[in-house]
Prior knowledge:
Blueprint: E1 2-4, E2 7-9, H1 11-24, H2 30-37, H3 41-54
Antiparallel strand pairs: 1-2
Amino acid sequence: MSVMGELTLTQQEQARLKVMNLVLEGKIGVGEAASTLGLSERQGWRLLKAYREEGVPAMAHGNRGRLPPNATSAEGPA
């Protein structure tokens, strides 16, 4: 993992960042980037839009730091 200020990116998120930077530099197209990342072209466009608007935090998973809705207390069942 890489630490960028308070944000830590996983290896997969770092790979997404590198590929999106290649798109912004004009070295590859969105379709090729999406294929490289295992996404549909539509998802590639959505990811690119989020990256342009939010920057690096857009590469992190949206549910990071949240508890699942079905989480139980650490004490166990009542």
